[in-house]
Amino acid sequence: MRWLHYILVTLVFILMQLVVADRIALGPVAPDFLVLIVAFFALYRGASQGSVFGFLIGFLQDLTNPGFLGLNAMTKSILGYTIGTAGTKTFPENAPFLFALFMAASFGHDVIYLIFYSWPQVGSALVAIFTIALPSAAYTAVFGVLTHRFMSLATPKAVEAYGKEGK
Questions:
Q1: What pTM value is reported for the model?
Q2: What is the domain partition of the chain in residue ranges?
C-alpha cells in the first residue's frame, strides 16, 4: 500500500514538471520538480533507496532525450545517494536547513548535468551554471520548502513515519 502512495506522489511531481514548471518559469529559470521528488525520497528512505529511485526517475526522464541516454539517470542517482546520506545524518525540520539542502541538491545536479552535457565546451556550461542553474536552484529550493511544509501540515504522521522508516 505504501508503494501505491509513492507512485501517486511521483506521478504528481512528474505532472508538475511537465505542466506547471514551464508556466511558472521566470525566463529560462524554472523549478525542477523531479530533483525535488528524488531529494524527498532520499531524505525519507536513505542513500541506497534514494540512489535507486533517482536512477529510475532519471532514466524515465532520459527516455525523452535518447541522445544523452543515462545522463539524467547518473545525475539523479548521485543526487539520491548524496541527499540520502546527508539526510540520515542531519535532518532537522527547519526551513533554512531544508532550503540550503534543496538548493545544494538542485545546484549540484545541474552542475554535473551541464558539464557532461556540454563536454568538451565546458565554457558554455560555466555560463549556464551561473546564469540559469544557480537561480533555478534557489527557485527549486523555495518550492521544496513549501512542499515539505504542505506535506507536514497535510499528513504530519505520514511524514514522520517516512522519516523514521528511512533511517
A1: 0.86
A2: 2-165
Q: At what angle do helices 47-62 and 71-89 cross, to 10 degrees?
A: 160
Between helix 95-118 and helix 71-89 the angle, nearest 10°, is 150
Cα separation, 159 vs 14, whole angstroms = 20
78 contacts 48 by C-beta, under 8 angstroms = no
**CA–CA dist 110, 125 (Å, integer):** 10
Q: Which CATH class name applies to 2-165? A: mainly alpha
Is the preceding omega at residue 120 within 30 degrees of 0, hence cis?
yes
Rounded to the nearest 5°, which phi and psi values hold at 26?
A: -105, 85
Taking the C-alpha atoms of residue 21 and residue 162, their distance in angstroms, rounded to an integer, is 26
Q: Would you give per-residue pLDDT tens digits along the chain (167 residues)?
A: 677 888 888 999 999 999 999 999 999 999 999 999 999 999 888 999 999 999 999 999 999 888 889 999 999 999 999 999 987 666 667 888 889 999 999 999 999 999 988 888 888 888 999 999 999 999 999 999 998 888 878 765 555 545 544 44
